[in-house]
Backbone:
């Protein structure tokens, strides 16, 4: 594959610096990708991503090969005026791939694999990334008998911390790094949830509801307790897991 063209709102070596005109920049990238040139668009915040949703929807609806990845910092550390919930909006765009890195080693290979796939994609890069090997697909990081936790991004380390805490109490969690957020990996989720009979989703509330519904559809007859959504921090995950397992 040719070296990708990098379009960025921030001037830096190797990038074509563009004005902050999000929809126009994504539209420009779409044209470049249609011409066969891989392109990466760097946006500065999820607020900027929301401003370009119309252009993303147009790119995703074309049905043509489009080696284009939009990367954006993800999280709420910069405050509500900068970091906005985006997953529920992105999950309404057919044809768009949405993935979330959970380790520093994942971001570059995820970008490369998305460009190879030739499908418009959004790569969410948490402002706080964990360590460890690259994960490019949904991965079960820890196996436990009592409940399954689906997490992504920075929430993965929080889920692993919660699992360590609960293990000292005799409660075992299966922890899954989803990575792929749209479309959700339905068959894998059903398998992991069926194995424990309990499901927790740690992440943005609206999008977590979509993942809970997926778990209900794929593993309904195996559920032993109602699925639960919680905030992606270790305290909230541990509390939700205790309630789900012990109730």
Residues:
């Amino acid at each position: 594959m040719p070296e990708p063209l990098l379009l960025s709102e921030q001037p830096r070596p190797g990038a074509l610096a563009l004005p902050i005109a999000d929809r126009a920049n994504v539209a420009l990238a779409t044209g470049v990708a249609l011409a066969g040139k891989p392109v990466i668009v760097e946006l500065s915040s999820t607020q900027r991503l929301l401003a370009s949703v119309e252009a993303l929807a147009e790119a995703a609806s074309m049905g043509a090969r489009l080696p284009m990845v939009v990367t954006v910092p993800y999280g709420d550390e910069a405050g509500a005026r900068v970091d906005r919930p985006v997953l529920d909006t992105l999950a309404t765009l057919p044809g768009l791939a949405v993935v979330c890195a959970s380790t520093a080693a994942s971001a570059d290979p995820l970008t490369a694999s998305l460009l190879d796939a030739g499908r418009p994609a959004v790569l969410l890069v948490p402002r706080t990334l964990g360590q460890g090997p690259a994960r490019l697909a949904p991965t079960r990081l820890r196996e436990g008998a009592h409940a399954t936790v689906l997490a992504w991004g920075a929430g993965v380390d929080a889920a692993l911390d919660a699992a360590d805490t609960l293990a000292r109490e005799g409660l075992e969690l299966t922890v899954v790094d989803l990575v792929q957020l749209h479309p959700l990996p339905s068959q894998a989720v059903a398998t992991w949830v069926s194995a424990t009979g309990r499901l927790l989703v740690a992440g943005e509330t609206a999008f977590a509801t979509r993942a809970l519904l997926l778990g209900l559809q794929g593993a309904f007859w195996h559920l032993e307790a109602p699925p639960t959504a919680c905030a992606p921090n270790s305290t909230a995950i541990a509390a939700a897991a205790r309630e789900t397992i012990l109730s």
The CA atoms of residues 186 and 214 lie 7 Å apart. The domain at 5-126 is CATH 3.40.50.970 (Rossmann fold). The chain has a mean pLDDT of 88.
